[in-house]
From TrEMBL:
E.C. no: 1.1.1.14
Pfam families according to UniProt: adh_short
Name assigned to this protein: Sorbitol dehydrogenase
Keywords per UniProt: Oxidoreductase
Residues that span the membrane, as ranges: none
Protein biosynthesis among keywords: no
Organism: Novipirellula aureliae
UniProt enzyme class: oxidoreductase
Molecular functions per Gene Ontology: L-iditol 2-dehydrogenase (NAD+) activity
Length: 249
């Protein structure tokens, strides 16, 4: 289910910095007529408006505030592509004293936030012909790293929801993409200690729109992601992406 974003309208959550900013810029480079910069503080998108003019439209959206998501969907009724990039990460092992609190925080944004965005924007995408929905997951969604166990758990859950969205939204002609970066050069990555091995956010932006254009479900943008994706490929093709109708045991 390939989709060309040229002359289309895109919405990117967390578009004011890091990967989200790179996604916004790549969307414009590929010919998107408008990009909604969906951010918690609309003033944070002012530099993007200064650079791109009215092609960038700031809109308030907070993954922890369901009302803001509903309001954004009621405003951005012309959206063809939604990229849910915003997310949070804590550094906590499964036996850390604050593991449960950290996991609750991460689940609320990374999983419940995804569901809220999908519920709000799926009808918009359907009304506009289907379009595409991309979710920023992680290599951590298929591999748990001990010092980031709660984050990995939240991303595994968001990946599971993304797989469900692939089946549900295909019925309305919406192509879903699950994006799995490794360490990326962002403030979040630096805070996690990934700065020495991190790669450019531009790789993620390119991978997202390539996957949308080519009709792929999985996107593995960077060096680490490519290694994980290659190892995971058989399972992805034969289990995750297989059109099976059986219910789980």
């Amino acid at each position: 289910m390939a989709f060309d974003i040229k002359n289309k309208t895109v919405l990117v959550t967390g578009a004011n910095r890091g990967i989200g900013k790179a996604i916004l810029k790549e969307a414009i480079r590929r010919g998107a007529v408008k990009v909604y910069a969906a951010v918690r503080n609309v003033d944070s998108a002012n530099p993007l408006v200064a650079e791109y003019g009215d092609r960038v439209v700031p809109i308030r959206l907070d993954l922890n505030d369901p009302a803001s998501i509903v309001a954004a969907a009621e405003t951005a009724t012309d959206v063809d592509v939604v990229v849910n990039n915003a997310g949070v990460m804590k550094t906590a092992s499964a036996v850390a004293g604050d593991a449960i609190e950290n996991l609750q925080f991460e689940m609320n944004t990374n999983v419940y936030g995804l569901i809220r965005v999908a519920q709000a924007f799926a009808p918009v995408l359907k009304a506009n012909g289907g379009g595409a929905f991309a979710q920023l997951n992680s290599v951590a969604s298929v591999k748990t790293f001990p010092h980031f166990a709660t984050y990995c758990a939240s991303k595994a859950a968001s990946y599971a929801i993304t797989q469900g969205l692939r089946g549900s939204l295909s019925e309305q002609g919406t192509h879903v993409v699950s994006v799995h970066p490794g360490p990326i050069d962002t403030e979040m990555g630096a805070a996690a200690g990934f700065d020495k091995i991190a790669e450019s956010p531009d790789l993620v932006a390119t991978a997202i729109f390539d996957a949308i254009a080519d009709g792929h479900f999985h996107a593995w943008p960077d060096s680490m992601a490519t290694q994980v994706g290659n190892a995971y490929q058989s399972f992805a093709e034969n289990v995750v992406e297989a059109d099976r109708q059986e219910s789980p045991a």
